[in-house]
Amino acid sequence: MLCVVAVANLVMIDLSAAETLQEALVKAYQVNPQLNAERARQRGTDENVPQALAGYRPQIVASLSAGLQAVRNLLPDNTVQGATLRPWTIGVTVNQILYNGNKTANSVRVAEFQVKSGREALRNVGQGVLLDAVTAYMNVLANQALVEAQRANVAVLREIQTTTKRRLDAGDVTPTDTAQAEARLSRGLADLNAAEVVLAISKATYAEVIGQPPSQLVPASTVDGFSPNALAAAREASSHEHPAILGATFDVDVAQTTIKVAESSLLPTVSVQASASRAVQSDSTLSTTNTDQASVIGQLNVPIYDGGTAASQTRQAKELTSQSRLVLEQVRNQTRTAVVSAWVSNEGTKVALTAAESEVRAAGIALQGVRREASGGQRTTIDVLNAQQDLTNARTRLIQSQRDRVIASYTLLSAVGRLDVQVLKLETPDYLPEVHYHQVRDAWHGVRTPSGQ
């Protein structure tokens, strides 16, 4: 497999303090706030299922009323009788829906499809975070090599400037040669400063994505072995594995089932209500001071006309279903395009890298030849400066090609839908959203989350 290395051993790495790309990906997978926020969103989506299942369960309400009641009675003999009463009532009511047009059953199905869609959305975000981490890592690694390449270029230009001044003092060259050497040195210093600025920015991006500043980064390998070996196979794999497509498929299921939920409002509802209560009166003039009641009542509600609300909601759900199908087709097209683009880019980086390696070798040989010829008087100072600039440019393109080569291989893996912890075999526990789902699915009570919050 290909490894990205600093050109001409420009970067020396202390392996004892080194950080590999796999280690950086583990950190991003564990602490990236975008990914953790998406996990929290998915845990919230899980709660849709127990909320829907609550429709199968009884609703129990206890009531208690008590207070003071002032009574003033005018008797036939024009006498007034007054009293302060303290009545109170306690009761409990149980409501159970027996049939509601299968609204509860379909609501549970909608919630379960939402959970499945959310899991694919979480997986898609995870792919994006890992790809961002790879990009941030490779940018820092490449920019460090570019800074060292520019420093090496500045050192060579200083040497050429010093040599040119000595030759000017000896009368071998003209002031034009020294001016050319000084101009190239100034350009080299400006290029070095620009490279250092870009490196600082890439380090800040790295800390944002990975969660901490970069340390000593080591060469990274491509992941071509995890991707299909042909474009047709990559497109076929993405159609079955990419989380965006799978999530959009579940969204269609959500929309289709929502139609049935809306239609349930047009069907009868059957429920039963049981209640028990005790009322206590403290009025001594009454013949009854305590009243105990218990009842079981069945109720049938048949909708006749609700102003057209349920019908409108049903039509709306059907239109949203059509939309979700079109979105699914759009996602499929976008994914196919992304696979082709990633495949072509990945193949293109192979060619670019081979060409850049050949260019560096040729530019190095050319520089050596020009410097030998210049020492013999057959070449001018500007020829040496141009050859040095050609070598520096070639090294820059090689470093960029090495970076692009690794990023492209990960981009292809992401386009196929395989950029995850298990495929990459990262040494970290995989976040399993189904664990939280099963923890809360059948919870009948309690407000604390499984994480203790």
Task: Produce the secondary structure layout.
Layout: E1 18-19, H1 21-31, H2 33-46, H3 48-53, E2 59-66, E3 69-74, E4 80-85, E5 88-99, H4 103-170, H5 175-210, E6 216-217, H6 231-241, H7 243-263, E7 269-280, E8 290-301, H8 309-375, H9 381-416, H10 421-424, H11 433-440
Parallel strand pairs: 1-6
Antiparallel strand pairs: 2-5, 3-4, 5-7, 7-8
Helix pairs in contact: 1-4, 2-4, 2-11, 4-5, 4-7, 4-9, 6-8, 7-8, 8-9
SS-derived structural category: alpha+beta
Which residues sit in consecutive blocks of at least 5 with pLDDT less than 50?
A: 1-13
Strand order of the largest sheet: 2-5-7-8
| CATH topology assignment | Outer membrane efflux proteins (OEP)
Oligomer: single chain
Query: Helix and strand succession?
Result: EHHHEEEEHHEHHEEHHHH
Task: Give the rounded overall mean pLDDT.
Answer: 91
What Rg is obtained from the alpha carbons, in whole angstroms? 38 Å
Fraction of residues in H or I helices: 55-70%
CATH top-level class: Mainly Alpha
